[in-house]
Design a protein that fits this description.
This protein is mainly beta and 284 residues long. The chain has 1 helix and 13 strands, in the order H-E-E-E-E-E-E-E-E-E-E-E-E-E. Keywords: Signal.
């Protein structure tokens, strides 16, 4: 009885050993599981052809006289400052949007250089002579001017770059856009004795008709004008990111209205001829 029991026990042990070895043998047939690979992502580039720009300029603005303010007739008589951004499509074509501020006509105070004869009366030198003859009585008058005229010029521009020569890139361009023109103007005239000219009355001795003098002007408004410009200049590569830009710009900034030194209404194109220098930063 002992031997069969021993044989049975050996058989059971052999079966158990086989059951343990079989899964291990099967597992060896599967490829090893590889650990998951994590790829570190770098920063996403915003763009390699975009650029930012900033410019300062000197300008000659016309008309040189408006609303009691007289600018120098030579170059320069004004200044500009601007910012912008653009995109370079290829080696020859790029475009940008620029916004430029220009302080046009600024004055607060008396204008002693614009003394004008103002009529304060009428008289008939010879009542028995020509009945149509009447002579004016004059006084000297001067304006007290308060003038704030400013421009914010926004242009969409396109440029043709004419090749790169030892770091220098000449270009030509044109732009169109809008000019926001702000005017706050008052001009009050005074006689030489400090009495306001507005309100002075005088009578025609022939007809007894009464006249009242008033040269004063005052208005305030914001206008939006169509504008366009033509440009030409060159840039110089400082490095892969920075460029110096030097150029000339002719800008027609739309109609402007005011009065000249003789108090006549003036409506003409506002022209700004500018020499500008700035920097362009290429985003890469």
């Amino acid at each position: 009885m002992v031997r069969p029991f021993l044989r049975a026990r050996a058989t059971i042990a052999t079966a158990l050993l086989g059951a343990l070895i079989a899964p291990a043998t099967q597992a060896a047939d599967f490829p090893a599981i590889q650990p998951q690979q994590f790829v570190e992502e770098g920063p996403v580039e915003w763009g390699s052809n975009w650029y930012l720009r900033g410019d300062l300029g000197i300008a000659r603005t016309t008309p040189t006289e408006l609303n009691g303010v007289t600018l120098s007739n030579s170059f320069p008589n004004n200044w500009t400052i601007g910012l912008g951004g653009g995109y370079k499509f290829n080696d020859f074509l790029r475009a940008d949007v620029t916004v430029d501020y220009e302080s046009l006509y600024q004055k607060s105070g008396v204008r002693n250089d614009i003394g004008l004869p103002c009529t304060i009366g009428l008289y008939q030198p010879n009542p028995l002579g020509d009945p149509g003859l009447v002579n004016p009585i004059y006084s000297a008058c001067f304006p007290w001017v308060r003038n704030r005229t400013e421009s914010m010029l926004t242009l969409a521009n396109a440029y043709i770059d004419l090749g790169n020569w030892w770091g220098f890139t000449p270009y030509v361009g044109a732009g169109v856009g809008l000019n926001v023109l702000y005017q706050r103007v008052s001009s009050n005239w005074y006689m030489y004795n400090g009495v306001p000219y507005a309100g002075v009355t005088y009578t025609d001795p022939r007809t007894n008709a009464t006249y009242m003098a008033n040269w004063d002007t005052k208005y305030q408004d914001t206008y939006v004008r169509f504008a366009y410009a033509f440009m030409g200049g060159f840039s110089y590569d400082i490095d892969n990111h920075w460029k110096i830009d030097v150029g000339y710009r002719y800008a027609n900034m739309g109609k402007i209205t005011g009065v000249d030194r003789y108090n006549n209404v003036v409506s003409t194109n506002l022209i700004s001829q500018q020499v500008r220098m700035g920097f362009r930063y290429v985003i890469d």
